[in-house]
Amino acid sequence: MRFGSEHVLAWISALTGVKSLGIFMPVIIGFGLVQLFAAAALTLHHGRWRRRALLGTALLAASPLFMLGMLYQLIAQVGGIALLLASTAILTSRLPSTRRRLLPHVAVLSIIGAALAVFYPEVTAFAVLTAVLVGAIEWLRHRAFPTPRLGLVMYGIVGVIILLRHNILSYL
Predict the structure, then answer these.
(1) What residues contact 143, with CB distance under 8 A and at least 6 apart?
(2) Dihedral (CA of 45, 64, 20, 76) sign
(3) Is 146 helix (H, G, I), strand (E, B) or coil?
(4) Along the 172 residues of the chain, how does pLDDT read in single tens digits?
């Protein structure tokens, strides 16, 4: 059950006063832009490779499948992949070592994770598997257990459960 796109359309329609038919294409274009910027954030996760991020964003923007999703008006898929890329960018970013500084990351991850669970629940496993893979690579490289990464994932899951409340059953 994917009802996130309908909620977003109704919310933006209520905010702007424009009918949902008139707001649909600007919303799906906005989700496409979120996809592009989240893909660039994945490339820039350590603050380098700006040219590679620009090239990757340009290639994604010119990709036929990217444009086809918007032209076929697949709003749940376009928005869901955008949220997946954004959550993966947060899960793979460089993390602070203290719990207090980890709190903003957890809050943003919880909000994006809950939105992803409502919007496009089938792809949430890919974000979690990516975080596990990044944690395993960090463990092998540094020969120390990646406690901040595990804390981010666990607190993020708790935050998603708190935000979803009764909708957790429809997500599962």
Answers:
(1) none
(2) negative
(3) coil
(4) 677 888 888 889 999 999 888 888 888 888 889 889 888 888 887 667 888 888 888 998 898 888 887 776 778 888 888 899 899 988 888 777 666 788 888 899 999 999 998 888 888 899 889 888 988 888 898 888 877 888 888 888 999 999 988 878 777 7
Residues shown for the chain: 172
- Residue identified by tokens 């463990």 is 139
Asked if 50 and 96 touch (Cβ cutoff 8 Å), the reply is no
CA distance 34 to 132: 24
**pTM, to two decimals:** 0.83
What distance in Å separates the CA atoms of residue 172 and residue 170, rounded to the nearest whole number?
Answer: 5
**CA-to-CA separations, 167 to 2, 6, 18, 61, 77, in angstroms, rounded:** 11, 15, 28, 33, 20
Q: Which of 117, 21, 82 is nearest to 10 (CA)?
A: 21
